[in-house]
Amino acid sequence: MNKQKGTGAADLRCLLSSAMNVWDVSWGSEMLAWASAQIHCQFHASENRVALPPSDGSKHDVQAENETVFVPNRGERGQCILSTPPKILFCDLRLDPGESKSYSYCETLPVDGPPSFRGQSVKYVYKLTIGCQRVNSPIKLLRVPFRVLVLHGLKDYQFPQDEAVAPSNPFLEEEEGLKKDSRLADLATELLMVATSRRSLHLYNISNTRGKVGTFCIFKTVYKIGEDVIGTFNFSEGDIPCLQFSVSLQTEESIQEEFQRRRGQPVSFTVHARHQESCLHTAQSSFSLPIPLSSTPGFTTNIVSLKWRLHFEFVTSGESAGTCLVRGSQSEAVTWTGVEQMEVDTFSWDLPIKVLPTNPILASYVSQFSSTNSITI
């Protein structure tokens, strides 16, 4: 059995249209009893950082140990926190030598599910599992991981009842379900565009205990994955000379207090991009940090919270700007050189930003090649 699937992603609703080709491996015709498909989300947690409540051992599923029962997450580590109803692809399929059959599978994911995420403390992994059984043989499972992006705010949206209000193409005949999926995708794209296209000037004064170092300017604080975070510095109006600065694009992964292994345990940080620059006697400077398409937008569940921020670090001189250079000689030709040692002060600053998902088609560009998955039954 061979399952082909192009690389893809989903927001709140997932549509998987995949072909499954089945062929016979013997000289005579073969009988396949059945094949089913199901989507599930597997949750993994680090035992050193996350304290989960004990599982209920009284609910022992005898059928899960039976090799003739379709259990998509059999043998998987972690907990299955979400699963869709299994759908039968075929029953009692007879194939002659060289013959093949193709089947399609479509499913809608629950709107309250978490996004795909691989963090330092927890992981949420979505998989499409196809099970197939040959007559008088055990079940064989094929698992295909895929990515899910979640956009909040679509769950309670009410579409207009009057079809004349909603734009439609009268020359195309669409099923009601596909039409709603298309309109929901268009709505998600529109909401993302509106949320991330708003621009307004945000100015921040950079100061330490000794005085003003400069100003920082950024035009928006809401982004989509795949965009660039751009900011500028102005050190010309500062009283304290800045020797060096660095800006890091980070995610902050924190475990909810009731699930922390140790009370007050530190959060986990991941650096996605970094810019560092020496800026003594520099009036203005800027940076551009790309948000990776493979990263996860900010989200919150009952166990973990993921937030984005810009982390700034500044190294300033403990002396005035004039003492950072030394006159080399008293002759007419003057040579200025940097001092060998000087006192410095360091301080940091965090600016929270919001990162939203992007169009699933753009997110799929992370891996543009199609994959082929197969099992032998």
Task: Describe the model.
The strands form five sheets. Strands 2, 4, 5, 6, 7, 8 and 9 form a seven-stranded mixed sheet that branches. The chain contains two helices and 22 strands. Strand 19 (325-327) and strand 20 form a beta hairpin. By secondary structure, it is mainly beta. Residues 1-26, 57-64 and 161-166 have low confidence and may be disordered.
Task: Give the gist of this structure.
The protein is built from two helices and 22 strands.
Number of strands: 22
Give the oligomeric state. single chain
Helix content: under 10%
Largest sheet descriptor: 7 strands, mixed
Strand content: 35-45%
Topology:
Layout: E1 2-5, E2 9-10, E3 19-21, E4 30-45, E5 79-83, E6 87-95, E7 117-118, E8 122-134, E9 139-148, H1 176-197, E10 202-208, E11 211-218, E12 222-224, E13 228-234, E14 242-255, E15 268-278, E16 284-290, E17 299-300, E18 304-317, E19 325-327, E20 336-338, E21 344-356, H2 360-363, E22 371-374
Parallel strand pairs: 2-9, 12-21
Antiparallel strand pairs: 1-3, 1-22, 4-5, 4-6, 4-8, 7-8, 8-9, 10-11, 11-13, 13-16, 14-15, 14-18, 17-18, 18-21, 19-20
Based on the model shown, name its key terms.
377 residues, 22 strands, mainly beta, 2 helices, 6-stranded mixed sheet, single chain
